[in-house]
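Q: Structure tokens for this one, please.
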Amino acid sequence: MSNPTTPRGAEDDDLDGIEETPPGPLSGTHALEASDADAGLRLDRFLANHLTGLSRARIQTLIRQGNVEGPEGVLTDAAIKVTPGRHVRITIPEPEPAGPLPEPLPLAVVYEDKHLIVIDKPAGIVVHPAAGHAEGTLVNALIAHCGNELSGIGGVKRPGIVHRLDKETSGLLVVAKTDAAHQGLAAQFASHGADGRLVRTYEAFVWGVPPRPTGTIDANLGRSPTNRTRMAVVRGAQGRRAVTHFEVAESFIGPDGKPLSSRLRIALETGRTHQIRVHLAHSGHPVMGDPAYGTGFKSSTRRLSENAAEALKNLGRQALHAMELGFEHPVTHRPLHFTSPRPADIQALYDALKPAPDAPKRSKAKPNVSKR
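A: Here is the predicted structure, written as tokens:
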């Protein structure tokens, strides 16, 4: 289990004295009338302003599903502008029962209150059910642990999930237990630290040594045209913008005395599928042990010492760990900060690698995540 850095005020934090966020609107049909102050608002913004606790994303889904009506009939365009006096009805269906079954799987809980829970996820665990992974996921374990407390915004298969980690990536992950928490956390993750509230730092062991001590990889990501199960850097307007910041915290030499690998600290400006792994591979420094994006560096294993080669073999996954997570509590607005120690399998690889001579460690520095 991780040992989180104690958040300020958390020693006696039972949330007493904190004004509760009003619950979201009950299921059923709600009739609204636009006022002069609402003039010119998008339909989804107008509804979000008047339905406390219901996220804009959820409202957009309800609009697409035909659950919003005006005098002229069903409204399916979330971007239409409302005018004063306009009448709108929105029907909110009964919450769907959670599809995944509860499973009493072990959870490394580093923090929990009535609004959210922070988990230190081990490698090998899928975050939410998907094709081929209907059971044994983090969501299954959370349903067993939290019962009906999980936020429903994420949908049947992703209750409470605000962000995720790849199956074989270990580290810290926060899950919302209420819709208000989900909405507040989602806003912070959408900004990726640009507003100063969210801090996410990863540690990665990569092949080779980047030519500069710090750097930024800015390259669009999309589905690989040759393998739809993988992501790839794509040209032009294809794909979605992805930005990764990194810092070389330490470099390692091989038995031949030449640079072999590096330990990087990484921060994300965007959050795309497999972003860190694809960007680092694209830069010529794939994550060690990555079975999908690091196969072109298999020959580099011959340059490892016997102990390091054995440690990498035993690792059996990408050497990537979500080591730090900090955010503003979405309800109390208190800053929370947690760290996760390096897992034993990655620590074994680190111990087996040989630091380069005269290469100072910069482990306390953080990559620059400010928007440019």
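A few notes: Helices lie at 43-50, 56-64, 138-146, 179-191, 275-282, 306-315, 344-352. DSSP finds seven helices and 16 strands in the chain.
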